[in-house]
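Exam prep: given the inputs below (a chain plus iron/sulfur cluster), describe the expected output before reading on.
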Amino acid sequence: MNKKLSSKCEDFINDEKINDIIKNTPEDKVKVREIIAKSMEKKPLEVAETATLLAAESPELVEEIFSAARQLKKDVYGNRIVIFAPLYIGNYCVNDCKYCAFRRSLRTTVRKTLSPEELTQQIEALEDAGHKRLILVFGEHPNYTPEFIADTVRQTYSIKKGHGEIRRVNINAAPLDHEGFKTVKASGIGTYQIFQETYHHDTYKSMHPSQTHKSDFLWRLDGLSRAFESGIDDVGIGALFGLYDWRFEVLGLVTHSIFLKERYGVGPHTISFPRLRPAHGIDFDKKYFVSDYDFKRLVAILRLSVPYTGMILTARETPEIRREVMAFGVSQIDAGTRVELAGYTKKDSSQEMKREQFQIGDIRPMDEILRELINSGYTPSFCTSCYRKGRTGEHFMEYAIPGFIERLCTPNALLTLEEYLLDYASPETREAGEKMIASELAKVKDEKVRKEIMERLDKIRNTEQRDFYF
Ligand code: SAM
Ligand code: SF4
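Solution:
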């Protein structure tokens, strides 16, 4: 590994400044309403404006923030929800992160790296469930070289079973050097995700023991800048909520987002906001535990602050929380999730904590989650079109270009949903989904577009052809 930082490297997180903003920003009804109005025009918020939203404590003001996030979601994003699954490739790790069951000092964790045969079995099981988009997850270990990650990506794309295939592979792994990012990029990845975990330096230090790779705050903070400089224009940021004050982390994420946009012309494609979960061998101070109420606040505030960034809500959360928080503008969720190594071929959904990174909150099968989404008015989408058509880098396009959603996103959502309904769904889900497709089609105003969607739907229904996209 070449420890060369990005050409624009700088530690843009000033703890004192962020803490001062939090401490000195009072609740201000008038300002909160002005800032909400700015978000409704889809303008990204400054750090100080986000801090004003964070300072809103009175229930009525918080409710205004919630309803603004719900409204923004409806106006800007429509009712599509993109579906993916995480696939853990290996849990050997040289780091010792205090919150993670894969940390190296935990001798009782069962370690494994999927062999090529096991990888094939897992991918086939995921394809049999209807998945088209995966995120591959890796511990940090000398075995998990950029070449190994790239080979895993290539193998994943090559496995096809029946109508099943994986059309987009994202990565969550340790930060690489420039060469490493180039190697992984060449294998055809979608998003490269790196979570900073905590943006607060002292907390970062206490969570990541010195002498471990991950203890280098700046190397990690600079990771996605190096990714940009290596040609990856699709990156995901995130913070692990529960390690430090959630308000600080929200401002850290917004600062990071603004930094990337200013330096590289593109903000992050996605923001993740995992909340700390119980895990094997993990027991530490819960001082910064984020309550459900505050979790809802932070999701709504992030939505308002970064209007063009996708937001990922994972199965760490329970179905109840997912239902509620989704309405605040989440754009992607995972479904049918297993975090145990080789877990997708297991018959039952029980969790064996010694084999998992953490306990998940939503263990429902994919079909059940999709049916619930459909019955709640969401259109599940397996669309991978933008990435395959080379429409990456300018993630805001879909929301900013008039008609983009109607011409491209909605058709692609309906076509990929139809594939799911025909090839994988239970009869109940299929019935609910077909009704939804009919009602969504009726809403498409442009007759030419509607006709084109109908023609392609017919082809999916009456032939073996799949994978139509606009
Ligand atoms: N090893 C890579 C790294 O550290 O960047 C991959 C990350 S890990 C396999 C995926 C993410 O899970 C971590 O970045 C962390 O935010 C999250 N995570 C770790 N322990 C967790 C826990 N106990 N509860 C919830 N999320 C956790
Ligand atoms: Fe390893 Fe990542 Fe877990 Fe840290 S969070 S111990 S780096 S797998």
